[in-house]
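Tokens in:
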């Protein structure tokens, strides 16, 4: 009799007490998910109703849906292949076995204020379906081979030790207020139709992450973060990410109306081999160095991207039909092998000492309202059918070995006594207009080839075009507060209209063919020494002084209101005595 009574007592402790059964609530209903889109909310608390002797109250009534109740268990063993269905576990210590769990161990249950303990155990697979986890603490290191939360809610889970997941999957789950106090590593993470909010992570290393079906990940804080593969699709949202340490993200895929916003990186961010397609990236701040090594964006919007720390390096950037706005880079920037195609960039600011663009292509791209504080250098670039307008440069501007075709540079301002140079460039069917150069600055196109182009509305301290080739070019509405030097250049079918030069105009060893001077005024000396002037026309033109030694002229036309220095209104000739 005594032995029988002892067995009955032990059975009551382990099994708990049975209650009348009802319908288990859906922990991730549509209404609950709508609430979680803004904040974490837990509408259920079953454990607090334990001990109500009268059985009354809403909480007591709700608890009756569970078949088994485990309360205050100091060591609740969960043997291999254990299953919990319609069970309430409250204020207990769960001992994880070293063996393998069944593939669907816990369902239609609630686990509140419990402590999960284990010593590096390796469950084969643990599935939680329609389960409420609230106030769960994992005190020892755990390794999960497969962990699935389906239609479940997990709130207030704290992992105090190392956690490793071979496969971690969330399907229609709500997860919030999660704290990982130690390092965490996961090989494969899948988030489908789920909401994750208020995650506090330590050192995290993720091999492959997939976020799909309008999932939401919000308010995440982490120390160092490493992600080898990230895929976000189906309108999923990542919002409120804060990385306190270094971040390394590679093979990221943000696709199909997905959103990444309000991300902040306190130290270095390294982004490699990534893609953004039909998605939005906004309000991203990097306080350390920013390195982008391979980024393709198509039909996407990128705005409010700020690099506030050290140097920024961008390699192999491809933008196709994208809109980029409100970009600020505080340190020096280097952009290599970029391709901007059919895109729009506006309100971009470079505040570093130098901005370098090398080997890049700009095709049918609009770039407006750029501010460059330091020196700007661009080399081996191709600007095709593009428009650059409203740029402000505070340092030297140098464009070398580049092709500019069917494009327009307009409303460019260069200040602080700095030059603007286009050296060894091929410029065709393009417009360079409204270039404002304050104080003493120089506009230079030496060694360049300009064809079917226009240079207009420029105010400059000096104009320099050594060994340049200008064919079918219009230069008009130009004011040069210094010397205009075309030494050793070729000008063919060029029109100079409404040009005022306070200094000298030098065509030394230059070849002029069918050049039209219309309303050109030169306050200094005009030099044709060693050059040739053939089939050129002069109208409403005044040269204060003129020198034409060892040159050749033929079939030039002189119209009304022409003053040729000491020649007066008479046509000049290279064969006359020179001053």
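Residues out:
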């Amino acid at each position: 009799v005594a032995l029988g009574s002892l067995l009955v007592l032990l059975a009551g402790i382990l099994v708990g007490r049975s209650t009348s059964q009802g319908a288990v609530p859906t922990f991730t209903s549509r209404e609950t998910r709508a609430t979680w889109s803004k904040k974490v909310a837990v509408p259920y608390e079953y454990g607090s109703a334990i001990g109500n002797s009268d059985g009354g109250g809403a909480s007591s009534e709700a608890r009756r849906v569970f078949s088994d109740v485990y309360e205050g268990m100091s060591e609740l063993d969960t043997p291999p292949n254990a299953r919990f269905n319609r069970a309430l576990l409250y204020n207990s210590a769960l001992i994880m076995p070293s063996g393998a769990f069944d593939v669907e161990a816990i369902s239609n249950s609630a686990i509140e204020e419990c402590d999960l303990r284990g010593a590096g155990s390796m469950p084969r697979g643990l599935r939680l379906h329609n389960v409420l986890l609230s106030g769960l603490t994992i005190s020892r290191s755990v390794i999960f081979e497969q962990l699935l939360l389906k239609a479940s809610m997990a709130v207030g889970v704290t992992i105090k030790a190392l956690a490793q997941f071979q496969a971690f999957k969330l399907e229609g789950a709500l997860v919030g207020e999660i704290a990982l106090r130690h390092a965490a590593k996961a090989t494969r993470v899948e988030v489908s139709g789920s909401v994750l909010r208020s995650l506090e992570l330590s050192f995290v290393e993720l091999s492959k992450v997939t976020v799909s079906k309008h999932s939401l990940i919000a308010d995440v804080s982490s120390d160092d973060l490493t992600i080898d593969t990230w895929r976000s699709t189906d309108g999923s949202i990542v919002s409120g990410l804060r990385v306190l340490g270094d971040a390394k993200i590679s093979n990221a895929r943000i696709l199909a109306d997905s959103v990444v916003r309000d991300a902040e990186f306190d130290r270095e961010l390294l982004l490699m081999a990534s893609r953004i397609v039909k998605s939005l990236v906004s309000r991203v701040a990097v306080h350390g160095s920013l390195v982008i090594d391979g980024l393709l964006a198509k039909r996407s919007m990128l705005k409010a991207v700020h690099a506030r720390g050290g140097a920024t390096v961008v390699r192999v950037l491809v933008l196709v039909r994208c809109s980029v706005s409100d970009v600020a880079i505080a340190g020096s920037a280097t952009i290599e092998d970029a391709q901007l195609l059919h895109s729009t960039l506006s309100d971009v600011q470079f505040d570093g000492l130098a901005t370098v663009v090398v080997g890049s292509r700009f095709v049918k791209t609009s770039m407006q309202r750029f501010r460059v504080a330091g020196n700007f250098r661009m080399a081996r670039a191709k600007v095709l059918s593009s428009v650059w307008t409203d740029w402000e440069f505070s340092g030297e501007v140098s464009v070398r070995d580049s092709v500019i075709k069917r494009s327009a540079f307009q409303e460019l301002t260069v200040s602080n006594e700095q030059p603007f140079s286009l050296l060894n460039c091929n410029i065709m069917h393009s417009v360079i207009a409204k270039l404002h150069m304050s104080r003493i600055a120089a506009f230079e196109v030496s060694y360049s080839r300009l064809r079917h182009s226009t240079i207009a509305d420029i105010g400059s301290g000096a104009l320099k075009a050594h060994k340049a080739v200008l064919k079918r070019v219009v230069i008009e509405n130009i004011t040069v507060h210094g010397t205009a030097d075309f030494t050793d250049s070729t000008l063919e079918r060029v029109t100079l209209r409404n040009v005022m030069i306070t200094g000298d105009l030098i065509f030394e060893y230059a070849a002029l063919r069918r050049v039209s001077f219309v309303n050109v005024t030169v306050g200094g000396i005009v030099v044709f020494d060693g050059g040739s002037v053939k089939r050129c026309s002069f109208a409403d033109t005044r040269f204060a002084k003129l020198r034409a030694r060892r040159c050749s002229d033929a079939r030039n036309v002189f119209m009304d209101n022409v003053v040729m220095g000491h020649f007066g209104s008479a046509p000049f000739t290279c064969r006359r005595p020179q001053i």
